[in-house]
Specification:
single chain; mainly alpha; 8 helices; about 0% strand
């Protein structure tokens, strides 16, 4: 919900900054009709920093989105391999398989919880308990024949490793200060752009709408890529491979 509200709010605030800059530029032009129509060094610095910050944050968010998507496929492959290796267990197999399903369900539930801290922590605790129970049952199942430990336990361990990577990816985001700096630079750039357009006598409504709209949409895409389960760009569709695998486990 916050991601959906951020772009319209930012768009309106940027329009306000453009209007303030336009009024400041008109006053400046009235005081000094010969004021330079070019951008100053300060203007160029703000625009350059804004462009660099947008480029880096967008690139980082896109890379993290791709990595999270690849991790879904990796986890599905690891879970499928681990499930097949359970066929080697001669004893306690039903118990291990039941705990495997419970672990799988806990992981799926984790990816569907709201991204508030309390819900996420509770889902992580459940998944960790199911993981510990599955590991203990698998170790017990291999204890009767130690030769089974090598083919059965490493695939399970790989599942847990990938799960840990996905959990870390869920929590991996840039510091909030980066986003606040992006907003402040956007506001500063909007003010300077409005002032420059007023001085150059090109302050048309469509120019201001386009400037504010491009910045707001770009900011939204960055947030959407960074939090891919809260906006329009979602990972839910990619989770279909996990749900399809779970359906085959009974």
């Amino acid at each position: 919900m916050l991601i959906a509200l951020a772009p319209p709010a930012l768009f309106l605030v940027l329009l306000a900054a453009l209007e303030l800059g336009t009024r400041a530029g008109r006053r400046l032009l009235a005081l000094d009709p010969e004021v330079s129509k070019g951008t100053t060094a300060a203007d160029g610095l703000v625009y350059a920093l804004l462009g660099l910050l947008i480029a880096f944050t967008f690139s980082g968010a896109a890379n993290r989105f791709d990595r999270r998507r690849d991790q879904i496929v990796a986890e599905a492959n690891a879970l499928g391999t681990a499930w097949l290796r359970l066929d080697l267990l001669p004893s306690e197999q039903p118990d291990v398989r039941e705990r495997f399903r419970a672990y799988f369900d806990a992981r799926l539930a984790l990816y569907e919880v709201p991204r508030d801290e309390e819900s996420l922590r509770a889902a992580l605790e459940v998944a960790q308990r199911r993981q510990d129970e599955l590991w203990a049952a698998a170790v017990q199942g291999c204890s009767a024949e130690l030769g089974l430990a090598m083919p059965v336990l490493p695939p399970l361990n790989e599942c847990f490793d990938i799960a840990g990577e996905r959990t870390a990816a869920i929590l991996a985001h840039p510091p909030a200060a980066i986003f606040w700096l992006l907003v402040l630079l956007s506001l500063g750039g909007s003010f300077l752009a409005g002032q420059s357009m007023a001085v150059a006598k090109t302050s048309l409504l469509r120019h201001r709408l386009l400037f504010a709209g491009v910045l707001a949409v770009t900011f939204y895409l960055i947030l959407d890529l960074e939090y891919p389960r809260m906006g329009l760009l979602r990972l839910d569709g990619h989770d279909a491979v996990l749900h399809a695998l779970r359906a085959t486990l009974g």
